[in-house]
Amino acid sequence: MKWLGLCVASVVLGASPAQATNIVFKNLCSETIPLYDNVKEEPLAKGAEIRRTLPDDFKGMFRSGSKPQATLGEFTSAGGKLWYDISIIPTGPVGPDLCGSLQLCKEHTGGVGYNVPMQIAPQSNINGANCRVLTCYEDGCPDAYQYPKDDTKTHDCPLGTDFVLTFCPVDPSKPTPAPATTAPPTPTPTPSPTPTPTPTPTPTVTSTPTPSASNNASQLDATNSGSHSGNGTSVESPAKEDRSLPDSDIDTTVSKLHANSAASAGDSTPSPTTNAPSASQTDAPSVEANTKSGQASQGATILVASLCAIATALGVAVVVVVRRKKALLDERNQKTPANLDQSLM
């Protein structure tokens, strides 16, 4: 097979100067890879790498595990070159023989030839043709040997070219899983205290005192009764008092009665109240108008009552004057001539 072709090429080209080839094996799988070199296994931990130096006459392969149904990375030094390929030719209870396709080889052997993704990448001398990167992400990948006569899948680089063989290389067509991160605990917000609303003080409405008509009437009655009682005393004075009261005294008494009546009327008039208008009076002009009209009517009533009191006082004064004069006349009439004779004797 392909090994025979490599041997023939080596014989034709002849011997070449020996040059060492270094291969670094990397494991990007999620588990340890048992690196097998057709002689023994060597564990390759997850994320780890191993370096190997191949002799100038090396001919062999590397895979994950010792079982033959696995993805192979094959290397052969011959003719001054390092030949390399990825092989997924199926194997089973019988060999692949001369099957002409991957599917026919699976049917003939009853097995498979793939187990893990693999990539072989030359680190120098890359030309994009025969010396280039080979990658196999899945079974049936186009870069790998699929049947024994699939010789176009063999590539070569000059001896001394270093390589990196990666198990489970990153597939750029698939999203890279994000690293698992533990979300920080969400802090519990501290509830802010609810401010207590300050109650708005209600303004106190001060009502304007309204003078009472009954109080004015009672004050007027008290003034009139005082005037009557004073006049009655002067009328009912005993006979032993001096009744020869001159007219000037009577006029003086009448003047005093007028003065008392005027004073009573003045006292009965309510003093104006000067209060600042409350909020309700400012906002309700109709209420203020009613209050003013009520005060005006009460003032008119008080004025009429005062005039009546003055008229009553004048009437009483006239009666007193008349009675005084009548009393003087009666006293003079009682002095008879007999009394005069007795006084002469």
UniProtKB/TrEMBL annotation:
Q: Where is the composition biased (Polar residues)?
A: 261-292
Which residues lie within the region annotated Disordered?
174-292
Q: Where is the signal peptide?
A: 1-20
Domain of life of the organism in this record? Eukaryota
* Identification of the protein by name: Thaumatin-like protein
SUPFAM superfamilies to which the protein is assigned, alphabetical: Osmotin, thaumatin-like protein
Transmembrane: is it a keyword of this entry? yes
Renumbered to this chain, the Low complexity biased-composition regions fall at 203-214, 223-234
- Keywords, ordered alphabetically: Membrane, Signal, Transmembrane, Transmembrane helix
Spell out the InterPro entries in the cross-references.
Osmotin/thaumatin-like_sf (IPR037176), Thaumatin (IPR001938)
Q: What sections of the protein cross the membrane?
A: 300-322
